[in-house]
Prior knowledge:
This protein is an alpha/beta fold and about 260 residues long. The protein has one domain (about 15-260): 3-Layer(aba) Sandwich (Aminopeptidase). The chain has helices at about 50, 60-75, 115-145, 180-190, 210-215, 235-260, and strands spanning about 15-20, 25-30, 75-80, 100-105, 105, 150-155, 160, 165, 170, 195, 220-230. Helix 2 packs across helix 6 and helix 4 (about 180-190) crosses helix 6. The protein is globular and about 55 Å long.
Amino acid sequence: MSTDAPLLQADDPDPVMRARPDGTSDFVIIVDHAGRRIPRRLGDLGVPASELERHIAWDIGAWAVALALSETLDAALIGQAYSRLVIDCNRDPAVESAIVTLSETTPIPGNVGVTDEEIAARREAIFDPYHARIRALLDDRRARGRRTVLIALHSMTDVYKGETRPMQCAVLYNRDARFAQILLGVLRDEPGLTVGDNAPYSVSDVSDYTIPRHAEARGLAHVEIEMRQDLITGETGQAEWAERMAAALTAADALFQERYP
């Protein structure tokens, strides 16, 4: 691909989706893998259309849940419109997994042999504006003396490489587990709900960007949440999980402020 012209053309959408930037809630919701768009100049990356609908391309259902959660809580919300197959906005661009050539078992031909210039073009068009918008929101809230609890919302496939996942959701964290552990307890109090504790994933500086760079670096209370995709593919499940997470986050934050005033 020639790098003479910008990666995103006039008919490509903005990489940043958002809602309620002036929401009254202490919560700020971030969805790194909200969309599955691919810039027109990159075609389909050589990936069959059926594969681009799967979890390898985006976090199925996460944006819909986030929109409902944002409305219920009156919380600011920012999401990424482009597929993680173009560039993963929850990875440091310097790590190899930021632009994958194989996702689960699916080859991504359009990512094979990408040049440094092409990687830079993807970062400048998609990654940088997205994280700049998050930084600007957090900077503005700090300047106005507003408290912030950062919620990174994701969804996970129910079967990964043939392994069935028993948990309906998961709570993830890295260095600071305080808010996450309180939320874990709140969710586990719900009968019949199996909640992963840093499983099937955990947060690290290599596997994640949003929590380390935007939450930990600022000393914000935070948590990363995974919801199982088969439970949030339809409107009923999305509404149910938005309601569940709104109640759990509100309860967890009340406990957090009691314990860490």
